[in-house]
Amino acid sequence: MELGLNQKVALITGGASGLGRMTAEYMRRDGVKLVLADLNTDLLDRTAAELRSRGGEVETVTLDVRDYEACRAAVDHAITSYGGVDILVNSAGIGGEVQFFADSDPSDWMDLIDINFRGVANCCRAVTDHMREKRYGKIVSLASEAGRANEKRMVLYGATKGGVISLTRGLALELGRYQITVNAVCPGVTKTPMTPWIDDEMEQHADRFYPLGRFGRPEDIAPMITFLSSDEASWITGQAISISGGFGRS
């Protein structure tokens, strides 16, 4: 399918690794001009170099999504570099410690809330004025199946992702009049640098929860993010789309 993404501009947070990096690769193949934002500058530079070696147009910006002014500066960098921002992919996130809520302390929550929820809100707000002025935009955020139906030992993580889903639906209502679509994708357990605790033994038992018998890979998720960022998805907004190998069958 021709997605019509050639020469569009995408700002991807968390773009140095995991789902952000894989999404950048898929978008590169469709001719998207990329602005990759990440807090890990060394990894960011290596990722950008790899994408450029395959023909990608890539700019980078070191970004802590907890800092709203830094998010505004990242948007300004994209506008200065490429003339605008057509697509925002909110991929920056952390997993936090897997533990019962009753065994946790408020200090364990702050980065989860600040990065997974407030960071998404910061980036959305940073790009909103520009997209409204253009009367065009695509915002895709990484939520989680844990945000749709929370699980024990990951209550706060699930709550932050549930917040992303709620933010997505509310923004879709507010921004639709400007031809801006806002969606979220909800992966099941996916093997990325954020899930180092997944081992071969765990995956051998994945069929207990996943009808397809395995955990996810970044290449399972990135195509949907890319599709939702295209005009082929121009009548899809306010959705939280499960990509989970059949987990929950919802």
Kindly state the number of beta strands.
Answer: 7
CATH topology: Rossmann fold
Counting H and I runs of at least 4 residues, what is the number of helices? Answer: 8
Poorly predicted segments: none
Taken in chain order, the helices and strands follow as EHEHEHEHEHHEHHE
Strand adjacency order, main sheet: 3-2-1-4-5-6-7
Portion in beta strands: 15-25%
What summary fits the major beta sheet? 7 strands, parallel
List descriptors:
alpha/beta, 250 residues, Rossmann fold
Word description of this protein:
With 250 residues, the protein is an alpha/beta fold. The protein has one domain: Rossmann fold, CATH 3.40.50. A seven-stranded parallel beta sheet has the order 3-2-1-4-5-6-7, with helices on both faces. Strand 4, helix 4 and strand 5 form a beta-alpha-beta unit. It is globular. The model has no long low-confidence stretch (mean pLDDT 91).
Helix and strand arrangement:
Layout lengths: L8 E5 L4 H12 L3 E6 L2 H13 L4 E5 L5 H15 L4 E4 L15 H29 L2 E6 L2 H4 L6 H21 L4 E8 L12 H5 L13 H11 L11 E4 L7
Parallel strand pairs: 1-2, 1-4, 2-3, 4-5, 5-6, 6-7
Helix pairs in contact: 1-8, 3-4, 4-6
Question: What's the gist of this structure?
Answer:
The chain is built from eight helices and seven strands. By secondary structure, the chain is an alpha/beta fold. It has a single domain (9-243), classed as NAD(P)-binding Rossmann-like Domain (Rossmann fold, 3-Layer(aba) Sandwich).
